[in-house]
Batch of 3 targets.
Target 1
Amino acid sequence: MIVEIPEEQLLELQRQAELGRLLAGVAHEFSAPAGSILSNRDLCLRLLDRIEKSISDSATARTVELLTVARELARVDQIAAERISHLVRNLKVASRVADPEPQRANVNEIVESAVQLGKTQFRDRITLETALGTLPEVECYPHLLIQAVLNLVVNAGQAIEGTGRITVGTQLEGDMVHIWVSDTGRGIRDEDQPKVLKQGFTTKPVGVGTGLGLMMVRRAVIDDHGGSIAFESQWGHGTTFHIRIPLQQKRKGVE
Amino acid sequence: MPDNRKPVVLLVDDEDMILTSIRTLLMLEADYEVVCFSNPAEAARHLENNQVDITVSDYMMPGVNGIQLLAEAKRLQPEATRVLLTGHADKASAIQAINQVALFQYLEKPWDNAQLLLVIQQGVERAQLFRELREKIMELDAANSTLKGTQARLLKAFL
């Protein structure tokens, strides 16, 4: 089926593709400094151990205290540096332009990555929770799945005015994996519900929504993974989106 | 032949901070001679005249990329080990690296010090074993040709 895409949406898609490339570049630029900081932090701890050993006989109480403070700082650095390093890894996977073949992956890790990336947008305004079930490895395109879940999380966050809660869950259903994103936002009006999964539909103000987010989710879930999308929503109470993808991908390569 | 020189680790990255971090790690936890280059072309020139045990190279660098440098390292010193440490990890470059330069390990930045240390130690050991093997084969070849000469002389003397 060929869908004609209006020109302004085409431009928007191009802009998003450029942003994706920019993001991949930024993630790459971060790898070296993050790597260096993480390594040096580890080395500082190793050095502190050595210093402590070499002065163990002559150390005054004050020296021991100073060493403890230095070690404590190095530990805080570790938490800080690991957070940067996780973010860089998640960004790299999410902004990857294309994985030519599906990979066996841990879907719960993919969901966690999307949630971590989503958190950077909402800070304390929204509580993000996960309810992850036990899953087998799933054959999928990890970058597309992260983008799809991230899109749903960002949508959910935009539906919440003020404070609220988003829950992202996973569970195994036969030979499918079920991923759901639930929010306590404003919900979708009954009359808008049939239009939600159509490309270009948005109720968000200009500059917030493009009407393309769900289209990308659709493309990733239905076209690329052979899965399905559904949602239920109550105006004023919130929305839950459901993604289901098969555990195995059909080979679509040429013979 | 016992060899008392320290194993040589060649580090190549256009970011000085990476060189400093890894050099410090090796200084602290191992006993190697560490040679660093932020310019891959200079690293390639170094490989022409100086034996190394392992080359650890970044991928994206100005002028020469990591795979091109490691291909040159393979041509100049085939028995030395080659490792790629890259911030730009994608499947295509990984496959290219493994196939073209017989890569020992493909590591991603940010790296884990304990893991990097282990890879470098194993890589150095591997290079030294290769070199020992080559020396033994050359000794065997020499012994073999001496034997052949003796045999020829014996045949001449008795027939």
Target 2
Amino acid sequence: MSFVLEVDNARISYAVPGGTIRAVDGVSLQLAERETLAVVGESGCGKTTLAKGVLGLEPLVSGDIRVHGQSVSSNLKGLATRVGIVWQDPYASLDPRWRIGRSIAEPLLVNRNGKIDVDARVDEVMRHVGLEPAMKRRFPHQLSGGQRQRVAIARALALNPPLVLCDEPTAALDLSIRAQILNLLKDLQSSLSCAYLYISHDLTTVRFIADRVAVMYLGKIVEMGPTERIFTDPRHPYTRALLASAPTLEKLGKLPDVLPGEIPDPREVVGGCRFKSRCPNRQEKCDVDEPDPTFEDGREYCCHFPVVRES
Amino acid sequence: MKRNWLFYIGVAFLALICLFAVFGPMRYDVTAQVGDKLLPPSGKFWLGTDHLGRDIFSRLAFGARLSLMIGVAVQAVAICIGLLVGTTAGYGPRWANVLLMRFTDAMFAFPDILLAILVMGLVRASKESLFAGLPPLLSGVLPVFAALAVVGWPTMARLVRNQVLSLKEQEFVTASRVLGAGHGHVVFKHILPHIWGLILAVAMVGMAMVILAEGALSFLGIGVPPPYPSWGSMINDARQYMAAYPTLLLWPCLALSLTILALNFVGDGLRDRFDPKFSGRSA
């Protein structure tokens, strides 16, 4: 099997007053063709930084990120043919002064390929995402939120990249439109056979769209595996807490269980397990040893004292 | 929207001033005695004559011509330098930014008019070699223009730099970069189109300041050299006859202040329209 995305022990850090933030601290993952991998976690866990690393917008301190076999560098030329991105807020990611037809054509024009008929391709990709080509002449502010996100998706898909990075593509949308966009992403995946790296904190949409889930905490993947197994039978206490904090129908009217405390200051280098300050299962070993990944039928997790399903 | 009518008043007045500047000086030779001294307004001399018997209406119109031309030329140069330097500082390497900021800080710390006088002095000192052979009017106006341009460009450069700095962090700029667009594409297609309007607005207000500064230089007697009339030198001439002939002073003062007011109205109107802080996102 060939991978469209391979991340090998990637590290990305920011220099801030008072130290460095290791926003991505040794992440490894692979994404196969036509697969959807969701990266979930709280705000500040490093999922957006990981996305920036994949796009070459943040330099790696160490490790390697390969898209379609080629290492990502700060030279962005040609990257767009290998990875497309759907941004969180289409209102911000589309130039408000550009008509949407021009925005969708932009990737085709800057990666000029003499063989391609730009106008025809714009029409085609607009139809793919459910937009009338006649809407080309409109400005972003003349569209609804859902239509704008469709424009953003069309733009990401214009070059037909094998990998599409979705950075919380539904976070800025109404609930009703959210479902439409998710269905659209799924349909496009089967018709265009692209892989998605889907970054989100919204567990409901993740469960709907993802084949596999990676749970990030403080710059590291603490648990990764097939979606259903992670959702129904989490191993890592953090995953379990994250799932418990999501509102569900059964818990209607009750406040969700939340983790005690906040994410610790990322500037401090934590010895041992990085989750220990908030972990209900914490024991002495957790203060000393950082847990290595444990592999268990198709999934992996980093915990000395994993959760076992309550029967 | 409530200040819209001020904008239109400003535009109308500026149109009038332009017509005045183009056609007004045609009636008489502005540098020569054409009638008796200090005549009151009449059918022949619409605003009367000055202490040397020159037609005030024509001289006022010639002053308008000089003021507008210097204002436009200085702002054109300021926009060119400002765009070049401001974009380099805002989009380019950090050191370029730091260098420009410290330099403009120093420029701002120095009073504009003093700086202009200094530049005038320098240009005048080398005038013989620099402007030798040019017609006398041009060789008189060019040092004024040079001095005001030197004083005027840092404001524009700073404006451009601030706008570029904030625009380059916008997501649509990052999005374009990730799509494979080069820096030139990003700067010319995504960043600069967003600041033309604001540049125009600031240039209007800047022009008002240039016209005022030109007036001040000429009032001090180091601006446009006599016998060519400038509003500032006309005010200076009229000073001696202030008690007996106050209208001599009135006309150039009125022309100067109304023009500056009109330019500010237009500049503010444009700014309301283009500055994102006032209008939010617009097409």
Target 3
Amino acid sequence: MTQPDHPRPDTGLPQPQRPDLPDDPRERWPHLHRVGVRLPLRDYLRELWRRREFAITVPLGELKAQNQDSALGQIWHLLNPLLLIAVYYLIFGVILQVEERRGVDNYLPFLIVGVIIFDYTRTSIQAGARMIVKNRKLVQSINFPRAVLPLSAIVSEAIAHLYSLPIMLVLVTVVPGGPAPQWTWLLLVVVFVLQSMFNLGISMVVARLSFHFRDMQQLLPFVMRLYFYSSGVLIPINPEIIPNTALVTILQLNPAYLIVEMAREAVLAGPLEPQVWLLGAAWSVSMLLVGFWYFRAAENEYGRV
Amino acid sequence: MSETAVVSVTAGAPTVVVDRLDITYRLYADSAPKLRKAFVGDRRQREYRSVEAVRDVSFVASSGEAIGIVGHNGSGKSTLLRGIAGLVPITDGDVYASSIPVLLGVAAALEPELSGRRNVLLGGTALGITRDELEDRFDDIVAFAGVEEFIDLPLRAFSAGMRSRLQFAIATAITPEILMVDESLSTGDAEFKERSDERIRGMLGEAGTVFLVSHAMRSIRDVCTRVLWLDHGLLVADGDTDEVVDAYERHVEARRRKRPEHPPEPS
């Protein structure tokens, strides 16, 4: 359906004619560039780099503004996962007694690492999903590489996560069954980098999907819940718990499981399994590349009303 | 293309070429679940309607020109600006520009909870100005906006006028080659109006191009060298400021007199 035709107003002036233009005006005026086409990859990355201050300033401001109104303020960033851990420990550790019945050693440190590490991916995906929709006005007003938006969401979550990591380390050492500080803890830096790459990649995918399908944001919490349970955060993924061995293999190949597993191996003095680290790294790199490619493919659409 | 600061064109050379531009919005008549569309195919096509905001518009703008755009509410003025700036997708036709046009729209990047100082940083970096360049120009920006006393207060404490002055000062901190001002969105007092007009004229002296959307014919006559008149997305006049503005004012006047029989459509 199109709008009805309106009579042309009587201007008393000649109707403007299309100027005499060559098919490609750039032939006549080489200094012109086409508007509304994606920048070439190199220029795009350079523009992204020029906006790095913006990508960092926004999240810092937001973090500050976010919790200003509640009494405990910033502390909520830390309190949140701690309360979650307490709830899960009560249910799975104390009531269901996973430790004795399922042969899980040292359940509390296992749970602490799992919840805190997975939470970084969960919050990143959920923040990324909102970025385009929430910043519609900005997208319609200023020309910048749109990848700045998911990037700034991840920067924000990464900063929050960097506050939780030391807390996590202190917690695992003080609870019963936790390891003493050791050199493998340095590997957490590797986990952090790989996880951030993965989070950025997947949140770009989710950002574009929730731009196309508004329902995405309603569905996301449930998808994340399912993902949480299938990534071995609460209970280990092994044939003792999941009888179907094919399913065990599939779940063990999933990136969030691998990231959580890497962190546990690093922190909880587990043996380091090279295949877990290699697979995890492969996932992170490919997720970042695929996510970036998929997000940028719709670069010029994001301003649509 | 990205260097907003460098004016690379000599006076008189084209800075913006718009060739048969169409911009059509598809608006959903209700908030129909879009996932459904993905699964069952597009059978519900009749539930959205197209709005042809800009139709077959062609013109060439040159450096040193200040182009006013006039037209009734909903005639497509703001959409045309956003299309030229590459901010909304183009449905058909081509737009070429000598550099990315800067739309005066930093407001969207600003955070009411943060101080004016941090907002200068925020708005400026959003436009791609580096931190160093911003720090060099910080005092100028603040002085030009006339908000020295307030700069460390949260932006929400600023009046609407102070906010739009700060916006203008940030957007023009580095002289963009092509500046677009959508005045239907901004406010400012008479004294600031004069200063911003002066800065716009200064830009023209440096061979920039300015687009000005305004309902105030006074501003258009003061600043512009050429005027485009849009009506329902069509370009109906393009020429000398006084000629087009006179004709447009006659048209508005005639419409006002006819209003009792033909109430204008809501915009």
